[in-house]
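User: I've been trying to design a sequence by hand for this structure and keep getting stuck. Would you show me what you'd pick, starting by listing the structure so we're on the same page?

Assistant: Good idea, let's start from the same input. This is the structure you sent:
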């Protein structure tokens, strides 16, 4: 029996799903462009190419039960959802008959770092990797700046199929927003450090990410598990230092060039040495190393691959400019909790520091809670903060104090270097690193110490 299938949201991958589903179906196709992204000419193009009919909300409401509705998990609940985009991508992958093992990473913070660490740790295999920066097959970048919506997984698979290497892939390692594709091999939930609301406050991050528990193996942040998911079974928990967790670290010794700690992995103890300026970076290491051990990589190979891994610019990376240490936290996922962690972490390296704080809006589904951030900054009562960007300007106005402000990150950093004597500057900037290359002073390569 022919069905009426309605796919929603041209902003977050709905058109990719339409194009892919068209290859396999004889059903009647409909589309709801909830954010009115498409022009009439574009709608006509898709109608002619895919025999799809575009509907308004009023038209859908006339007979809503007549449609099988496929919506992104964060879509406002203006119509019911029969299948999420995540679930529909799983269906489409099964249609393709893929043979690789699917490793997925979701969470509020740490996703991109964990995926990039896994790229290094699993480098002995043929791996397709998707994160918020790029789509990579082994060491070859196939696409830049692909989104991490579930539909991008279809784009990724089609890209390697074009290259003729789809059947050679051993593992796909995907960073996925708001949950994972159901029934994967290994799923990682890094944390729920802020359980932000989605879908016009009808749902939340913790609810959306519950799909991780459909996988064969699940690694979940210990605190998040106990707060939101304690009824779930067969879960391996990961913690920075809680010995009730299955996996945790101890004897941490922080250092600018490399940090050392002991990894307790199901009562086995391993010595680990790697770049890590903060406890949240060590958490990311725990997840990545645990996945590698789960797939059978020996700890000696893990340590060998860690030595060759490249740290991501802007993800707790650093550089020296003359004798001043610049720690860079520049990424779109920064929220109040992660900003607090950045600031709390500074005293490990220097008691005297300057903070440059700011960034952009509209770069992720999770907007920052300005009230919460302002209240935190009031509580620390720290004077040496320089604000920059649209976000920085708004926070500065909320604080109602005479803080310095500069339009660009470059101007803020230049002024700070020239006018403060502190030897540590922490940049906390909410944006994509690549979007700010022209705004970041880069006199010395990333992670190069002044002694090199």
């Amino acid at each position: 029996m022919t069905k009426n299938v309605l796919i929603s949201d041209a902003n977050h991958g709905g058109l990719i799903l339409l194009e892919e589903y068209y290859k396999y179906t004889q059903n009647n196709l409909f589309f709801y462009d909830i954010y009115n992204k498409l022009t009439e000419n574009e709608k006509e193009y898709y109608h002619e190419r895919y025999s799809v009919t575009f509907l308004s909300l009023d038209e859908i409401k006339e007979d809503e039960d007549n449609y099988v509705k496929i919506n992104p998990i964060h879509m406002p609940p203006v119509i019911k959802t029969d299948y999420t985009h995540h679930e529909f991508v799983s269906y489409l992958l099964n249609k393709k008959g893929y043979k690789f093992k699917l490793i997925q990473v979701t969470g509020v913070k740490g996703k991109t770092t964990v995926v990039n660490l896994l790229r290094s740790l699993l480098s002995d295999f043929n791996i397709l990797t998707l994160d918020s920066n790029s789509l990579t097959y082994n060491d070859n970048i196939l696409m830049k700046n692909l989104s991490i919506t579930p539909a991008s997984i279809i784009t990724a698979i089609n890209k390697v199929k074009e290259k003729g290497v789809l059947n050679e892939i051993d593992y796909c390692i995907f960073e996925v927003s708001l949950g994972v594709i159901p029934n994967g091999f290994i799923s990682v939930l890094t944390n729920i450090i802020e359980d932000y609301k989605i879908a016009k406050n009808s749902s939340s991050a913790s609810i959306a990410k519950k799909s991780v528990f459909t996988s064969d193996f699940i690694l979940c942040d210990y605190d998040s598990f106990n707060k939101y998911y304690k009824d779930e079974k067969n879960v391996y928990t990961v913690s920075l230092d809680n010995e009730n967790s299955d996996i945790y670290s101890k004897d941490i010794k922080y250092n600018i060039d490399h940090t050392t700690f002991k990894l307790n992995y199901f009562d086995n103890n391993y010595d680990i040495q790697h770049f890590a300026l903060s406890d949240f970076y060590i958490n990311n290491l725990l997840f990545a190393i645990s996945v590698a051990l789960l797939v059978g990589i020996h700890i000696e190979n893990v340590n060998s691959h860690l030595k060759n891994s490249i740290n991501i610019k802007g993800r707790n990376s650093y550089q020296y400019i003359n004798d001043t240490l610049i720690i860079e936290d520049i990424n779109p996922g920064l929220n109040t909790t992660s900003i607090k962690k950045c600031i709390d972490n500074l005293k490990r390296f220097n008691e005297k520091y300057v903070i440059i704080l700011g960034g952009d809006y509209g770069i992720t589904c999770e907007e920052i809670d300005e009230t919460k951030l302002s209240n935190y900054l009031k509580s620390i009562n720290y004077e040496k903060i320089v604000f920059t960007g649209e976000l920085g300007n708004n926070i500065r106005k909320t604080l109602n104090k005479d803080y310095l402000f500069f339009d660009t990150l470059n101007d803020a950093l230049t002024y700070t270097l020239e006018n403060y004597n502190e030897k540590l500057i922490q940049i906390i900037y909410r944006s994509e690193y690549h979007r700010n290359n022209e705004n970041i002073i880069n006199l010395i390569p990333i992670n190069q110490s002044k002694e090199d």
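That's my pick for every position. To get oriented when you compare it with your attempt: The first helix runs from residue 14 to 22. The longest strand covers residues 247-253.
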